[in-house]
Amino acid sequence: MTPVQRVYLALADLVLVIHAAFIAFVVVGLVLIWIGWLLKWAFVRNMWFRAAHLAAIGVVVFESLTGIVCPLTTLEDHLRLLAGGHMRYAGSFIEHWVRPLIFFNMNQSAFTVIYVAFFLAVALSLWLVPPRRSRRATQS
């Protein structure tokens, strides 16, 4: 493998890790909201956190309903091909461990149903555990 191919492979792995972090933010975020509500954690009612969380799953739902392939998946695939991969997702250490955690072999319509259901759960959490304005915003 040439040095340039190694750079492309490292960039593809970086995109994969960013993708996994995005997914973790969406999934773990909802769990933290509910746990935080029970344990009275202030950050789970932060308006910016909640807006970012809703927007993140909203983007996923929009992509799924409109048939748009996730740009992170497309970018990663392109970088792996530039790295000399002849097959989609030719391997590396990071890919070997992270990819199975975020990609499953299911029908796209099943994913769409899951995304929409998750979006509705996040939206419901906005109503049941409403965000609050920061103290600084209310003092000005």
Verbal overview:
It is built from six helices and no strands. With 140 residues, it is mainly α. α1 (3-39) packs across α2, α1 (3-39) runs antiparallel to α3 and α1 (3-39) runs parallel beside α4. The protein is elongated, with a radius of gyration of 18 Å. The model has no long low-confidence stretch (mean pLDDT 86).
- How many beta strands in the DSSP annotation? 0
Give the SSE string.
HHHHHH
Summed over residues and divided by their number, the pLDDT gives a mean of: 86
Ends apart, CA distance between termini: 59 Å
The percentage of residues in β strands lies in under 5%
Q: Radius of gyration, rounded?
A: 18 Å
Biggest sheet details: none
**What class do helices, strands and sheet pairing give?**
mainly alpha
The multimeric state of the shown protein is single chain
Low-confidence stretches: none
List the total number of helices: 6
| Amount of helix | over 70%
What is the molecular shape?
elongated
